[in-house]
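User: Can you help me understand a structure? I only have the sequence.
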Amino acid sequence: MPNLDQKLIQALPVFSAMSEAELDSVIAHAKAQRVPKGTAVFQQGEIAKAFFVLLNGRLKVVKTTPRGQQMIIRFVNPGDIYGIAKALRREDYPATATAIVDSVTLTWPNEIWDDFMASHPAFAVNVMGTMGDRLQEAHTRIKELATEEVEPRVAHTVLRLITQSGRKTDEGVLVDFPITQQELAEASGTTLHSVSRTLSAWENAGLVSVGRRKIVVRDAKALSALAERRAAKERAGPR
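Assistant: Let's start by predicting it. Here is the structure, written out as tokens:
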């Protein structure tokens, strides 16, 4: 397990503006937890007992509908705060967070949430900013689901992934964690067949390179133009 020193905690965006005294308080209550690949940090509907910041690795947050359909709400990247049910005034977790790769997360008991928010203004500001960003992303995704066909939805999902988790390589911009086509389908609100067909067409056109649990965007500008052009056409409707 990593040692929880001030430099380690202060490197995380949500705690970056804290004073030394505030960081000492954060460290005093924090625990580091290993999360093996495929293991859930918490389950949808489970009583929320803690909140978390991902130290390293990657998680996916999955919502299961009453009909049993699964949808990936978002991916959790290193430095992200998550499991903040208290901020939503919920007693339980609204979705399941599962490790995509072996990960390490920091955890704090929910009992200190209100005190943290009241005693550490920098933390509160960063949390509110995070919630605002997620709300905006949720609104964008809802609009995409309501107004766009499969191809632009998948394109916007891939573009979000390389914006949030992209790493430049000789081939292009790699989604910097293993992702399956099924996971991409769940994140786009479509089917595995549709994602497979779409990626094949893009690969033939030289926009992406696809491997086992691997997506590289070779031409982000062209993919973005395709997404916006198709989306605008669909919003305009028939003439």
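Now, to help you interpret it: Residues 34 and 104 are 5 Å apart (CA to CA). The two ends are 61 Å apart (CA to CA). Let me know which part you'd like to focus on.
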